[in-house]
């Protein structure tokens, strides 16, 4: 695709997300820097770490987001003159009550459930909408202070949907991109938001020059909502705002393929894998890892596995399912309740099938190190990834990339964004327990040659469109969209 501006015309790249990708914690007398988990942080950090492969060379990358640490800790860290890595950090601090209404409230108890097709979990509380507006305004005001011509502002995700328009108001000439990491739901679901909110969020996003989604479906759902609620048509992927058409397109997010693929031979990963194999004593291994979230389909997965055990007594004693659930959003009631339900179901299934020498389910409620994660990806026979909805799902791509041995089978929900690219996986409907049980059986009996053929095809696709390609594609289109708008104005 031709570039209308030279790639290095970007002065600074601002990545703007709700949370920063790092945490600071005090350990004894020093301040330690820890990495934050989660899809958005993993993807963008991977991009920044692999920036030597990118065609964009900003003078500086600045990550703006809410701090999980105090101002005092930040000052102490700065005084120690230690670096935060390949990018600078610009922390923000929201008042506690604003943060609660914004983060736990509107972001995670309204937009998150609704956009993942859980309308019955969605709350519609006016104070939360106010807090959401206030939080977005704090971001906008700070960015307006920092902004200089030729900076690029890349706003991330559903917490900051109002921000692009607020930035446009404060910095009219700015180059602004917006990327949504979660699904954009169908119009019939989106319209369930109160009128001012649903129109406000769309107007907010339309402050950007380019709006990116993971899949074609999400793009179409967005265009339809803009047309039905704002009466603005789209043509050839441009929302036709007078004088400033806004580009919308799909950019399926990806991973650092090489990092996962080469992890296969890391000494730490090899040692962990060996330890797992010894514990398995020849048994087959099913593996899953997700944040604790009702969208990830953990309960359905348990029920599918239970059905499999029920239908296949011949597999009893010969298979283990390691299910890792990573703590997340524990302040929100629906998340705590879900944890209890998951643990009750695990207890029930183990109680139903376990013997003195065999436990069908091994549950770990914690996060794994990178080495442990890759060891499980490469030790398992089947990865079970069964979200009820998922914007993309990076775990699916990481599992495929890490299989340098070209073995293993991916069972993947058809409503994860990743399903659009990973058609060689065994695609299942996450609500269909019988279908899931059949897929487990099919996966366990798949010939190694077929496994290799499928994995190789998926690996080629992920390698060709890795996270660097994803970000470069987005930034290239952002510059093109801006240039096209400028031509439009001249006309
Ligand atoms: C959102 C969207 C979209 C998880 N557990 C551990 C661990 N992880 C890492 C995985 C992966 C990331 O966290 C999770 O990414 P997902 O994409 O699967 O899910 P979300 O956090 O919900 O991400 C999602 C994504 O944004 C990007 O746009 O794909 O649809 O919901 O990278 O590896 N990493 C380690 N230990 C763990 O225990 N080291």
UniProtKB/TrEMBL annotation:
User: One cellular component GO annotation, for this chain's record?
Assistant: cytosol
Offer one example of a GO biological process linked to this entry.
Answer: trehalose biosynthetic process
Cite a single GO MF annotation.
trehalose-phosphatase activity
Query: Which top-level group of life is the source organism from?
Result: Bacteria
The entry assigns this protein to a family as follows: Belongs to the glycosyltransferase 20 family. In the C-terminal section; belongs to the trehalose phosphatase family.
Query: What is this protein identified as?
Result: Bifunctional alpha,alpha-trehalose-phosphate synthase (UDP-forming)/trehalose-phosphatase
Organism name: Siphonobacter curvatus
